[in-house]
Amino acid sequence: MVNRRRRRNTTLVSAAEGLGRTLGQLANRLDKLHKQRDAITARIEQLAHTGSEMFARLKRGAEADVAVVRRTVKRGRKAGFKMSAVARRKMSIAAKKRHAARRAALARK
Asked: How far apart are CA 59 and CA 65, in angstroms?
């Protein structure tokens, strides 16, 4: 009877040791995965920051190009340009239609 009792105790102890070892290995794997996740997150944040900086530089360059084009383009009609009364009347009617359509759309909302 003593031998049987010892075996049970030994089996129970070895099972507990095996369970502890398995839980330790699982904890190590989880730690490694958390470290990898943190490293990946840091890398993604770094890439996003670099991308936003590149976009900002590109945007500033495009704005400068647009400013140059705006300075060189002459706006408005040429000096001495005369519009006929009929053309002015047509433009006035078209503008009134646009404004009425805009007011009607706002009233529907």
From this structure: 10
d(CA 21, CA 31): 15
Read off the pLDDT of residues 1-44 as tens digits, 9 standing for 90 and up.
455 555 556 888 888 888 999 999 999 999 999 999 999 999 99
- Start-to-end C-alpha separation, the chain: 91
DSSP secondary-structure letter at 38?
Answer: H
Residue for token digits 């047509």? 90
Please give the Cα distance from 51 to 57 (Å, whole number): 10
pLDDT for residue 105 = 94
Instruction: Report the alpha-carbon distance of residue 18 to residue 14 in Å, rounded.
Output: 6
Whole-model pTM? 0.42
Residue 23 is encoded by which pair of tokens?
């839980």
To which H or E segment does residue 98 belong?
A: helix 85-108
Rounded CA gap, 98 and 88, in Å? 15
